[in-house]
């Protein structure tokens, strides 16, 4: 809509109204900035700290092709280096790109293995990358999510290169073209079934902690050019085309959420929508938002309870970030909001953001009780672009953090472990305890280990966490320097929903 020209006929009422609107926006931004400028020194015990590990085109990994046993081991070693570095900076979540565009990073009966693993389409790298990364994340006490690109299938050239392996050739009528790319058509009822078949493979066969959907949306500003006119005529039912398209995406979200929960209810189902939902009373989205531009309705998904976490792609700063982050939180229905921060914009050729731009956003997230943040993308963390890795490791993430619990799925914590025994040996301390019990019999509880110089150990303080997601009932503590050895220990049990029980303390 065009703005009318000022021809000198504005009434006093219109002028006063504009002044009031401007003052309201200025006041809102002032208070938002006041939160941002406060240095939030106390680190929360519960916080999502996620990194997006991009496998498409080998952007973050893999850089080495597994064309021989030695190169396979090098490919795995490169991934372990990444995970070790994330662990050292107290990240607790890895978002691993598991499906790129019509290809995958695991052994699938539906889609081919991505060519960047071996330089061959459907090549076998000699191991299962998804199983490997999940296992190695869990060894380090980190959660691992399968990041699934949903609707785009890739360029026409890419789809042609996949040949008989492409969804275009082994599905019936659910693929379509728009501009130079192929897409699954959200209007087709079988599209959600095809995506659920992929999610079923992942959920049934892998010990994944979450599934996060990317590009679960229509192409931007596609208007009447997206070839779904016949479908709209058949299924529209009197709705506007934008309303109908939003309903199509919501139906896919609902079907996938319910399907995954039927297999493993503890697996978190998430998405990364466009970073602005729509205009807010505080600020305008300038016409680019999830609701109108790509036909996503994530606030409806949260109200309906068909999302556990949302990672909105908030690659903005200043007043294009803070009001919209607050809006996500206020409309979250208690679900977790962990904005995807534009860490790649630190690069001079991308946006030349300052280090403080990211630090202020984390301050704001904490001050306003959002669930945490995610960083896009991992390469810039690994390269410590403008000191971002050091700033997180040595300041913002100096202590470990647990993922927030999904209490709407299960709110009952495991029983406390008991009979904690602490044995001091020459170069380590061995802790053993008797197992706790959980109301969900499908998963044995895991354990959080705490240590302190004071007794009893305060398990509310993140600085006392020395290990998390420990399986079994034995833990060997090996302090880096003997003079840093803690004197007292405590253990709690935690379930797959993040519920933590009461602690057993070392006996005095």
Give a concise summary.
By secondary structure, this protein is an alpha/beta fold. The protein is 32% helix and 18% strand. A 10-stranded parallel β-sheet has the order 10-12-13-1-2-3-7-8-9-11. Strands 17-16-19-20 form a 4-stranded antiparallel β-sheet, with no helix packed on it.
Word description of this protein:
With 508 residues, the chain is an alpha/beta fold. Helix content is 32%, strand content 18%. It contains 14 helices and 20 strands. The strands form four sheets. The chain has a ten-stranded parallel beta sheet. Strands 17-16-19-20 form a four-stranded antiparallel beta sheet, with no helix packed on it. Helix 3 (129-139) links the parallel strand 2 and strand 3 (143-149). Helix 1 crosses helix 12 (355-367). The radius of gyration is 24 Å and the shape is globular.
Low-confidence stretches: 1-24, 26-31
**Shape, principal axes of CA atoms:** globular
- Arithmetic mean of pLDDT: 92
Q: Helices and strands: which structural class?
A: alpha/beta
Number of strands: 20
Rg value: 24 Å
The strand order across the widest sheet is 10-12-13-1-2-3-7-8-9-11
Tell me what portion of residues adopts beta-strand conformation.
15-25%
Largest sheet: 10 strands, parallel
In angstroms, what separates the terminal alpha carbons? Answer: 73 Å
Helix content: 25-40%
The helix count comes to 14
Main attributes of the structure:
single chain, 508 residues, alpha/beta, four-stranded antiparallel β-sheet, 32% helix, 18% strand
Produce the secondary structure layout.
Elements: H1 12-37, E1 48-53, H2 69-88, E2 93-99, H3 129-139, E3 143-149, E4 152-155, H4 156-162, H5 167-170, E5 175-178, E6 181-184, H6 189-205, E7 210-214, H7 229-235, H8 241-263, E8 268-271, H9 290-293, H10 298-304, E9 309-310, E10 313-314, H11 322-330, E11 336-337, E12 340-341, H12 355-367, E13 372-375, H13 378-382, H14 388-396, E14 418-424, E15 429-434, E16 446-452, E17 465-470, E18 474-477, E19 488-494, E20 504-505
Parallel strand pairs: 1-2, 1-13, 2-3, 3-7, 7-8, 8-9, 9-11, 10-12, 12-13
Antiparallel strand pairs: 4-6, 5-6, 14-15, 15-18, 16-17, 16-19, 19-20
Helix pairs in contact: 1-12, 2-3, 6-8
């Amino acid at each position: 809509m065009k703005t009318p020209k000022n021809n000198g006929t504005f009434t006093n009422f219109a002028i006063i109204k504009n002044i009031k609107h401007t003052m309201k926006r200025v006041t809102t931004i002032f208070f938002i900035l006041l939160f941002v400028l406060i240095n939030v020194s106390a680190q929360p015990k519960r916080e999502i700290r996620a990194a997006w590990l991009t496998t498409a085109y080998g952007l973050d990994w893999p850089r080495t092709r597994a064309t021989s046993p030695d190169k396979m081991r090098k490919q795995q070693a490169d991934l372990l280096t990444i995970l070790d570095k994330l662990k050292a900076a107290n990240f607790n979540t890895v978002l691993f790109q598991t499906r790129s565009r019509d290809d995958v990073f695991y052994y699938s009966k539906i889609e081919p293995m991505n060519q960047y693993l071996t330089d061959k389409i459907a090549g076998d790298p000699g191991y299962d990358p998804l199983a490997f990364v999940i296992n190695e994340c869990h060894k380090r006490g980190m959660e691992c999510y399968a990041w699934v690109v949903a609707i785009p299938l890739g360029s026409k050239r890419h789809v042609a290169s996949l040949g008989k392996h492409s969804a275009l050739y082994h599905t019936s009528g659910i693929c379509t073209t728009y501009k130079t790319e192929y897409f699954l058509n959200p209007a087709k009822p079988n599209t959600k079934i095809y995506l659920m078949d992929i999610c079923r493979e992942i959920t049934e066969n892998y010990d994944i902690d979450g599934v996060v959907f990317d590009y679960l949306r229509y192409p931007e500003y596609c208007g009447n050019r997206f070839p779904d006119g016949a479908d709209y005529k058949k299924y529209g039912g009197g709705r506007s085309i934008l309303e109908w398209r939003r309903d199509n995406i919501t139906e896919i979200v609902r079907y996938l959420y319910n399907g995954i929960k039927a297999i493993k209810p503890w697996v978190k189902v998430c998405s990364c929508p466009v970073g602005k939902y729509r205009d807010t009373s505080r600020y305008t989205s300038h016409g680019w938002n999830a609701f109108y531009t790509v036909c996503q309705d994530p606030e409806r998904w949260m109200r309906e309870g068909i999302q556990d976490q949302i990672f909105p792609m908030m690659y903005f700063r200043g007043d294009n970030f803070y009001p919209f982050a607050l809006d996500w939180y206020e409309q979250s229905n208690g679900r977790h909001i962990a904005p995807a921060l534009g860490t790649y914009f630190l690069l001079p050729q991308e946006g030349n953001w300052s280090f403080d731009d990211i630090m202020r956003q984390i301050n704001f997230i904490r001050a306003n009780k959002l669930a945490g943040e995610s960083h896009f993308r991992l390469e810039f963390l690994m390269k410590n672009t403008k000191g971002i890795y050091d700033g997180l490791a040595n300041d913002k993430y100096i202590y470990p953090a647990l993922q927030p619990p999904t209490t709407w799925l299960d709110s009952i914590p495991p029983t406390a472990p008991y009979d904690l025994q602490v044995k001091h040996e020459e170069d380590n301390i061995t802790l053993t305890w008797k197992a706790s019990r959980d109301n969900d019999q499908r998963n044995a509880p895991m354990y959080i280990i705490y240590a302190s110089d004071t007794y009893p150990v305060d398990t509310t303080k993140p600085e006392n966490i020395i290990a998390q997601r420990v399986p079994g009932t034995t833990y060997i503590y090996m302090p880096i320097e003997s003079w840093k050895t803690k004197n007292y220990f405590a253990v709690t049990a935690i379930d797959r929903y993040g519920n933590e029980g009461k602690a057993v303390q070392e006996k005095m």
